[in-house]
Amino acid sequence: MIPGIDVSHWQREIDWSEVKRSGVKFAFIKATEFPDKRTALFVDDELRKNISGASSNGIFWSAYHFFRTHIDPVIQAKVFCETVGDFTSLPPVLDLEVAGSKGERLNYKVRQFLDETEKITNKRPIVYSSGGFWRSYMTYEKKSHADWARAYPLWLAQYTTLWPTPLYPWAGWEFWQYTDKGKIPGVVTHVDLNWFNGSVEDLERKFVKGDNSYPAKVEPVQNAKQEPIAEDIGAKFTQIEDAQTFFKGDFQDPYSQQRTIQPQDEMVSRNTRKSTQKFDPHQKEEDWIRTYFLQKTAIN
Q1: Any catalytic annotation for residue 6?
Q2: For the chain, what are the domain ranges?
Q3: Residue 131 CB neighbours (<10 A)
Q4: Is the pLDDT of residue 243 over 70?
Q5: Going by CATH, does the domain composed of 2-207 fall within 3.10.310.10?
Q6: For residue 66, what are the CA distances in angstroms to 30, 77, 104, 171, 180?
Q7: Is 97 a catalytic residue?
Q8: In this predicted structure, what is the pLDDT of residue 141?
Q9: CA 130, 66, 122, 197 torsion: positive or negative?
Q10: Of all residues in the chain, what percent are helix, strand and coil, respectively (each to 5)?
Q11: Exactly one of 6, 46, 95, 115 is catalytic; which is it?
């Protein structure tokens, strides 16, 4: 097994050369999230620095999106991929640990996100979750509702010194987050520590050089109770605008603080921050999403 970390702005500025010297071989980096009950996108302040630092020091990297259910999953996938850009190392990651729904409905939403992300990046995403969340929400009604997930690599969160407990429907795990109290050179705070279940050569073969067909292609998401979402061929993303939101970071945080969306290669000073577009409760959600994120290039 080989060691890795996962980081966000909570780790502040990281000395990636020291992280490399400590033996870390891979890193998962926080990218995006729609905070609970909010329609403004949160982009992690350290995303660009962390991707650049990991990449320039030869550390395999990926970025993750913290999934919520109050924003359309396809929109979440598109904004996530647009924000990160090219995944030139490890595949994209879905961080699944909170939900506003459960059972078959939640499985449907998660699969929509994964399908859209794979379509955009041409890489099979990695699924991050814990046994407690997965059993309580994803297999809440029937275990069979989550059978599709075995076709995706599992990054399992289980804080124990023992071997992780198996999680249905996977036969095993690819990545294991075993503590959130790690300390390593180059990171001034505690940091999540992970193992990859294999060698560096295995990691590169499976997730960097491979065709990413792990382990088999799954059928497109279908649900008899819900209408499929029609693909909008005439829609095109515009650059994400600067926006101000009162949000500190991951859902565990007990308090709020002003945060700003930052364009991909540009830092924004506090003096130049703009207010986010306000949501009109009388406007249909799909119309608001279209005006906020999408620019029509053709009128059907």
Answers
A1: yes
A2: 2-207, 235-296
A3: 15
A4: no
A5: no
A6: 8, 11, 20, 25, 17
A7: yes
A8: 86
A9: negative
A10: 30, 20, 50
A11: 6
